[in-house]
Design brief:
This protein is of the alpha/beta class and 518 residues long. It has 16 helices and 11 strands. It is globular. The protein starts with 6 loop residues before the first helix and ends with a helix. This is Amidase. GO terms for molecular function: catalytic activity. InterPro entries: Amidase, Amidase_CS, Amidase_dom, AS_sf. It holds the Pfam family Amidase.
C-alpha cells in the first residue's frame, strides 16, 4: 500500500534531489504524481508477473539447526531437497551461501533485518544442481549483506563460523559458513560468492578447495550483487579437486538469464574429461609479486607445492607482473560508486531483459530505506565513499576504473602467453586468531581498516577485476593451520587449473592436508 504524497512531501523529496520548487509548482507536480503512482499501483495489482524459475520437485521447508547440531556455526538453515535420481552430482550433498536463492527457503543475505524472507525462485546454480542429482541440505552462514570479511572483532548478524582446524582462528569470509561446513565434513559441495576473494580466502584459511571461475562461465542469476556486477562471481567450494571439477561442470554454461554472459560463454563446459591428465610439460610461472607480502610459513608451503609440480614434469619459471601491485586501487575505485549504483537500481541491477525477483528486490529495498543503521561497517564506508566520489568526481572515477580494465587484463594475458598457469599464495597469511574487541569504537576502527594488516585480498582481488579463473587448493600446513596455493590461468581455462590442482592432490597426502585434527 502507498500514501498519496502531499505538495509538502513533493517539495521535500525534490529538495533532496537538488530540485527547488515553489509551493505552486509543487502542487502541480503533486497532482501529476498522484495519477502516476495510482497507475503504478494498478499495474502491480492487476497484471500477472512472469513466473519465477523453480524446480518442480517437492520441497522440504527445513529448519534452523540447534547449536548442538551445528557446532561450528556454519548453517543458517538445514533441509533435504533431493534432486534427479541420476546426474553428475548424484549422491552429493550441496549447500549454498545465503545470498543464493533456493525457492521455499529463507534468504537473509546474512542480515537479521531480512529475517523471515523466503525466496520464491531458484538461482540457476540451484536448478542445475538439482537437475544433476544433488541433494540440497541447507544454506550456509555468511557475514554482511552480500559481502564483508568477518575479520577481527567483526562478524555477521548470525555469529562467527568456527574454523574446524582451530576454532580460535578465523575461517575467512564472506563465504565463511561454507568453508566451515566443508572443513568439518558436513557437506560435499557448497556454492559461495566472490567479489574480492570471498571464495578463495576462506578456502585458504580453512583448508579446502575453492574456485572463482572465469567471468560469466557460471550464471549469476538469482544471486545478489554486493557490488559492481562486473566483479561478482559464484563458484564451487569443496574438500577435493575432483568434487570441485564436477561441481563446476554441473552448473557452468550459458543460460540466458544472466546478462553478463556473453556469446563466448559455452552452452556446456567440460571440466572433468582431462582432469587426470597430469602436468607433464605444463609451463607454470611463479608470480614474483604474489609473494611480496607472504609470511615465511606461507611462502615455504607454496614453494613446496611448486616442487611437487616440478617433480611431476611441469616446467617452472619466475615471472613478473608489476601491475599486480597496483590493480587493487582500480577495483577500489570501481566498488565505491558501484555500491551506490546498486542501491539506486536495486539489488539485482537493471536495464536488461531478464527475470527480476520482485519479492526479494522489495525486501532488500525496504532494508535500505529503513535499516541503514544496520549496515556492516565496511558496507557503510563503501557507500559513503561512493556518495563522496559522485559529488567530487561526477562519475569520472567509476568510468576511469572501468576503462583501465583492459590494461590490467592485458598485463596478465601477456604473462599467460609465456606460461600456461601462474602460481602464488592465495592469501599471504594463514588464518589469524580471533580477538574479540569489546570497545565499540575500537571495534569500528578495526572493522574499517584492521583487515588490511593481513593483506588478505592482495592476491585474490586482482582476478575478480580481470575475470581470469583462480583456484585455491590447500598446501602443506604450517603450525597446524592451512595454507592456500592459488593457480591462475587464461579465461575459460578453468579445466586446466583443476587438472593442475588434481595432479598436486594426487601426488601428496591430500587427505592429511585437508583433515581436521581430532
Amino acid at each position: 500500500m502507498y500514501r498519496t504524497p502531499s505538495a509538502a512531501d513533493v517539495s521535500e523529496v525534490a529538495e533532496r534531489l537538488g530540485i527547488t520548487l515553489t509551493s505552486d509548482e509543487a502542487a502541480v507536480y503533486q497532482r501529476q504524481l498522484a495519477i502516476m503512482i495510482a497507475d503504478f499501483d494498478e499495474f502491480l495489482t492487476e497484471r500477472s508477473a512472469g513466473r519465477p524459475p523453480r524446480y518442480p520437485g517437492n520441497r522440504d521447508v527445513g529448519y534452523r539447526p540447534t547449536a548442538a547440531e551445528d557446532p561450528y556455526g556454519a548453517w543458517m538453515w538445514k533441509c533435504s531437497i533431493p534432486g534427479a535420481p541420476t546426474g553428475l552430482l548424484a549422491g552429493k550433498t550441496v549447500g549454498y551461501k545465503d545470498h543464493i536463492a533456493v525457492a521455499g527457503l529463507p534468504l537473509t543475505f546474512g542480515a537479521a533485518a531480512m529475517e523471515g524472507h523466503i525466496a520464491d525462485f531458484d538461482a540457476t546454480i540451484v536448478s542445475r544442481a538439482l537437475e544433476q542429482g544433488a541433494e540440497i541440505i541447507g544454506k550456509n552462514v555468511m557475514n554482511g549483506l552480500a559481502g564483508g570479511f568477518g575479520f577481527g572483532g567483526g562478524y555477521g548478524d548470525y555469529g562467527r563460523p568456527l574454523n574446524p582446524h582451530n576454532t580460535e582462528h578465523l575461517t575467512g569470509g564472506s563465504s565463511s559458513g561454507s568453508a566451515a561446513a566443508l572443513a568439518a565434513g558436513e557437506v560435499d559441495i557448497s556454492y559461495g560468492g566472490d567479489q574480492g576473494g570471498s571464495i578463495r580466502i576462506p578456502a585458504s584459511w580453512s583448508g579446502i578447495v575453492g574456485l572463482k571461475p572465469t567471468f560469466g562461465l557460471v550464471s549469476h542469476f538469482g544471486i545478489s550483487f554486493g557490488s559492481d556486477q562486473s566483479i561478482d562471481y559464484t563458484g564451487p567450494m569443496t574438500r577435493t579437486v575432483a568434487d570441485c571439477a564436477v561441481a563446476l561442470e554441473a552448473v557452468a554454461g550459458y543460460d540466458g538469464l544472466d546478462p553478463r554472459q556473453t556469446k563466448d560463454v559455452p552452452d556446456v563446459y567440460d571440466a572433468t574429461s582431462n582432469l587426470d591428465d597430469g602436468v607433464e610439460g605444463l609451463r607454470i610461472g611463479i608470480l614474483t609479486e604474489g609473494f611480496a607480502r607472504a609470511t615465511p610459513q606461507v611462502s615455504a608451503s607454496v614453494h613446496a607445492a611448486v616442487e611437487v609440480l616440478a617433480g611431476l614434469g611441469a616446467k617452472i619459471s619466475e615471472i613478473s607482473i608489476p601491475e599486480h601491485q597496483t590493480i587493487s586501487l582500480a577495483q577500489k575505485a570501481l566498488s565505491a560508486e558501484a555500491a551506490l549504483a546498486i542501491r539506486g537500481t536495486g539489488i539485482f541491477g537493471a536495464f536488461t531483459r531478464t527475470f527480476y525477483p520482485e519479492d526479494t528486490i522489495s525486501a532488500i529495498t525496504r532494508i535500505w530505506q529503513h535499516h541503514n543503521d544496520q549496515l556492516d561497517p565496511r558496507g557503510a564506508l563503501t557507500l559513503l565513499a561512493g556518495e563522496y566520489s559522485r559529488r567530487y568526481f561526477s562519475g569520472r572515477l567509476y568510468a576511469r576504473a572501468q576503462n583501465v580494465r583492459p590494461t590490467y587484463i592485458g598485463a596478465y594475458d601477456r604473462a599467460l602467453a609465456e606460461v600456461d598457469l601462474l602460481i602464488m599464495p592465495t592469501t599471504p597469511t594463514q588464518a589469524p586468531a580471533f580477538e574479540p574487541i569489546p570497545d565499540r569504537l575500537e571495534a569500528l576502527e578495526f572493522a574499517l581498516h584492521g583487515a588490511t594488516m593481513w593483506d588478505a585480498t592482495v592476491n585474490t582481488q586482482p582476478f575478480d577485476f580481470t575475470g581470469h579463473p583462480a583456484l585455491s587448493v590447500p598446501g602443506e600446513k604450517q603450525n597446524g593451520l592451512p595454507v592456500g596455493v592459488q593457480l591462475v590461468g587464461p579465461r575459460f581455462a578453468d579445466d586446466l587449473l583443476l587438472r593442475a590442482g588434481q595432479a598436486y592432490a594426487q601426488a601428496v597426502d591430500f587427505d592429511d592436508i585437508v583433515a581436521v585434527a581430532s
